[in-house]
TrEMBL record:
Keywords: Metal-binding. It comes from the Bacteria. SUPFAM superfamilies: Glyoxalase/Bleomycin resistance protein/Dihydroxybiphenyl dioxygenase (SSF54593). This is Catechol 2,3-dioxygenase-like lactoylglutathione lyase family enzyme. It comes from Geomicrobium sediminis. InterPro entries: Glyas_Bleomycin-R_OHBP_Dase, Glyas_Fos-R_dOase_dom, MMCE/EMCE_epimerase, VOC_core. PANTHER family: METHYLMALONYL-COA EPIMERASE (PTHR43048), RING-CLEAVING DIOXYGENASE-RELATED (PTHR43048:SF4). Residues 2-128 form the VOC domain. Signal peptide: none annotated. Pfam families: Glyoxalase (PF00903).
Length: 146
């Protein structure tokens, strides 16, 4: 079995298409405004797709359920970048708004920052910290599982 792609089920299809293509800068490989489906090349053969939430709800029999319920985030899309500060600057220049500042997380071995797409999906951008900046407990775990 192999993961084919991640498909976000969205209510604001056109806004999300614009966000992932223009704000995030992903290459659109299929789809258009006013459509039902779009896919993006997010690097190294990985695909992020969008699909109208209402259409899948009809297919799987959940159309009568609420479209959104306020809750903690059930997932997030994580994208690794080589230069986090530069990527944040570029996304801000294209109109992106971040919900956190860049923060080094030695316990996780990364620096991270967060934003949301127009549908409220949580996105995390990360860059790996050099191992000498990792928390000692992470170094120990890494050695144990390597």
């Amino acid at each position: 079995m192999k993961l084919d792609n991640i498909r976000l089920l969205v209510s604001n299809f056109d806004d999300c298409l614009h966000f992932y293509e223009t704000i995030m800068g992903f290459s659109l490989t299929w789809g258009e405004r006013g459509g039902n489906y779009a896919s993006f090349d997010v690097g190294e053969g990985s695909v992020l797709a969008l699909f109208k939430k209402e259409l899948i709800a009809e297919t799987v029999g959940t159309k009568e359920l609420p479209e959104q319920v306020r809750s903690q985030d059930p997932f997030m899309c994580i994208f690794e970048v080589s230069d986090l500060e530069e990527t944040v600057r570029e996304i801000k220049e294209r109109g992106g708004r971040f919900i956190s500042d860049i923060e080094a997380m030695p316990l996780w071995g990364i620096s991270t920052v967060h934003l949301r797409d127009p549908d409220g999906n949580l996105i995390e951008l990360i860059t790996k910290l050099p191992q000498e900046k990792w928390d000692e407990s992470l170094v120990e775990q890494h050695q144990r599982y390597s």
